UniProtKB/TrEMBL annotation:
SUPFAM superfamilies: lambda repressor-like DNA-binding domains. It comes from Salinimicrobium profundisediminis. GO terms for molecular function: DNA binding. It holds the Pfam family HTH_3. Residues 17-71 form the HTH cro/C1-type domain. Signal peptide: none annotated. The lineage of its organism: Bacteria, Pseudomonadati, Bacteroidota, Flavobacteriia, Flavobacteriales. This is Helix-turn-helix transcriptional regulator.
Length: 72
């Protein structure tokens, strides 16, 4: 099955994560520590290369104090 139709959504999620991380002047490493992910994983999410779980998105939304729907 080809998941290329998901790429725009993954890019939007990544851009949202990056925007909120930068607004807080955090490195990918620092954000990873806050949400229990590695800096590499945060980088893959931000580049739209990784499909984060709903639990990861919930952790990020909680940390950023935003609604989950903002990722979508």
């Amino acid at each position: 099955m080809n998941n290329s139709h998901c790429i725009p959504l993954l890019k939007k999620i990544g851009a949202t994560v990056k925007k909120h991380r930068k607004m807080r002047n955090l490195s990918q490493f620092e954000l990873g520590l806050e949400v229990g992910k590695s800096a590499n994983q945060i980088g893959r999410i931000e580049r739209g290369e990784s499909n984060p779980t709903i639990i990861t998105l919930f952790s990020l939304a909680n940390f950023f104090d935003i609604e989950l729907k903002e990722f979508f």
